[in-house]
Write a structure and sequence with these properties.
The chain is about 80% helix and about 0% strand. It is an all-alpha fold.
Length: about 250
C-alpha cells in the first residue's frame, strides 16, 4: 500500500492520476455544491433568532473548515519535503496555498457579514477570530516567499518553515474556544466527538456543502499541482539549455 502511494511522487504517474480523476471530481464537486447551496439558501427555514442571516452558515463553515485543513495539508506536504525531499510534495503545498488563501478570505468576509447583525460589529478581537486572521497573514507570507525568493530550493525550505509556524495558528483557530472559553464566536457547529449543535433542517445541506468544498479543494489542488510540475520541468529544461549553451 505504501509503495503504491509513493509511486505518485513520480510526475508521470501523478499526471496520469490527475488526468483520470479530475473529470469525475469536477462533476461531483459541482453536484454537491449546487445541491447543498440551493438546498441551504432556498429550502431551509429562517432561524427564529437570526432570520435568513443564518444561511451564511452554508458558505462560512465549509470555507473556514477548508482554510484550516488546507494549511494542515500544506504542513504535511512540507514535512515530507523536509524529510524525503520529494519535489512533488512541496509543489503540492505551493499549489494549495492560493486555494487556501481564497477559502480563508471567503471565511473572513462571510463571517463579518454574519457577525454584524448578530454581534453589532463586523469584527471582534476574540481568540478564534484573531488566530484565524493571523493564519490569513501566514497564507500571504507563504505566497510572498515563493514570489520573491528567486532560488526555488531556498523558497521551498523557507516556505516549509512558514508552514510549520502557521500550523500553530491553524490549530488555535480550531481549538481557541476550547482553550480560552471566551469571545463572541460560538463553539464548533459540527463535531465528531460531541452531539451536533445544529438543527437537522440545516445539518444535511451543511454536510453536503462541506463535501462539495472538500471535493472542490481536492480538484483544484490536483490541477494546480500538475501545472506546477509542468512549470518546474520547463524551468529545469531551460536551465539545462543555458548550461549547454554556455
Amino acid at each position: 500500500m505504501t509503495t503504491r502511494f509513493w509511486k505518485f511522487a513520480n510526475p508521470h504517474h501523478f499526471g496520469k492520476l490527475v488526468a483520470v480523476s479530475t473529470p469525475v471530481l469536477w462533476s461531483f464537486s459541482f453536484l454537491f455544491l449546487m445541491t447543498g447551496l440551493l438546498w441551504g439558501f432556498f429550502f431551509t427555514p429562517d432561524d427564529f433568532r437570526q432570520g435568513s442571516t443564518v444561511k451564511i452558515i452554508f458558505v462560512h463553515v465549509p470555507s473556514a473548515l477548508m482554510a484550516i485543513n488546507c494549511w494542515l495539508m500544506m504542513l504535511v506536504s512540507s514535512i515530507i519535503w523536509m524529510v524525503r525531499r520529494h519535489r512533488i510534495s512541496i509543489l503540492a503545498a505551493k499549489a494549495a496555498a492560493p486555494v487556501g488563501l481564497s477559502f480563508t478570505l471567503v471565511a473572513l468576509i462571510s463571517g463579518g457579514l454574519w457577525g454584524q447583525p448578530m454581534w453589532g460589529t463586523f469584527w471582534a478581537w476574540d481568540p478564534r477570530l484573531t488566530s484565524f486572521l493571523i493564519l490569513f497573514l501566514h497564507y500571504i507570507t507563504y505566497q510572498l516567499t515563493w514570489m520573491y525568493i528567486a532560488d526555488k530550493e531556498s523558497a521551498a525550505n523557507i516556505s516549509s518553515l512558514v508552514c510549520l509556524v502557521g500550523s500553530v495558528f491553524a490549530l488555535l483557530s480550531r481549538y481557541a474556544i476550547n482553550l480560552w472559553n471566551q469571545g463572541l464566536h460560538q463553539g464548533a457547529t459540527l463535531s465528531l466527538d460531541q452531539e451536533t449543535n445544529i438543527h437537522n433542517a440545516y445539518y444535511i445541506p451543511l454536510v453536503i456543502c462541506i463535501l462539495g468544498f472538500v471535493l472542490l479543494f481536492i480538484t483544484l489542488v490536483l490541477v494546480r499541482t500538475r501545472t506546477e510540475i509542468i512549470h518546474n520541468q520547463i524551468e529545469l529544461l531551460e536551465k539545462q539549455g543555458r548550461k549547454h549553451n554556455a
